[in-house]
Design a protein that fits this description.
The chain is an alpha+beta fold and 334 residues long. It has 2 domains: 96 residues; 169 residues, NADH Oxidase, CATH 3.40.109. It is 50% helix and 12% strand. The strands form 2 sheets. A 4-stranded antiparallel beta sheet has the order 2-3-5-4. α2 runs antiparallel to α3, α3 packs antiparallel against α4 and α8 crosses α10. 26% of the residues are buried.
Length: 334
Amino acid sequence: MNMLNLLKKISNRLNFIFYTHSSRYKLRYLYSYDRKRFIRHAGSLHHEEKEQKLASVIMAYHVVEKGLSMPERRLGFGHDAVLELISLIRDYSEKFPQNDQILHAISVLDAYREMHRKENFSLRPDLQQALDSLLADFPPAVKEDGQIEITRELYYAHLESSFPEFSASRHSVRHFNGPVSLEQIERAVSLARNAPSACNRQHTRVHCICDKETRKKVLSLQNGNRGFGHLADKLLIITADLHDIRWEEERNDLYTNAGIFLMNLCYALHANKVAHCLLNWSVSPFRDILLRKLVSIPDHETVICILACGDCPEQFSLASSPRKPVSEILTVHR
């Protein structure tokens, strides 16, 4: 090896070492920045701000309204969840004016009480007393069931409509009644590829789980499918490939790009008459590792979300899940 080649080899090695160390330092700085902001503001650590309290109420009432719309509803369900929701509503109402989300939460509790009255089911005394007391203090402004009764025909009635109507017709479904074909899944994934991605790198991958026993084991690792997950015919595990990340500042881009693809996939599934429900993957590293072993997901793919899929019955219920007004979402900077 002549001297020039040796110097080039040494230079390349030094550049590699410098780049590697500088990248690692940059990553420490970037994640430190994220960590500090999370510690300062995350609702999991702070509970006194208005938005943090409202988020707790919304999450709690959604648990109850999901229970009201479950395919295998159990009378007396959610004792602790309902008591927690009552406590959260009182706490919020003592500090802030009630808004539409709080009013809906109260209506959900009213629907919960009314449903048990109609079934002549006696709730536990502590829960009955807490419910009666809250609803006496805050009578529901509007009677709601916390659920939407719908037919299969109506659910798919707007597949050929304008986008606003089509978009509004898509809902998360927790009633599954039969299989969907791999062809339906493949058509939906093919259509979802229209989703934009950073520099067209197309980070997202989809793992389709068909085997019943594997589905059961996967669902046992996820904490939001009780009461309906076992009815799903297929599971779609959405991942994003770390190999497609080109520099450190893109540390969060996997979730951005996969999230765009995921919403497009939900529309595509709806267009192909595949009922579906998104299941979060907010789990410990231990469960993430178990899932990877169970389904053979490569280590370089980050798990984003799981979709439970199946056919819907002729008649079923949807959680109403009202949206916040545009005024609370859109900020115009002039």
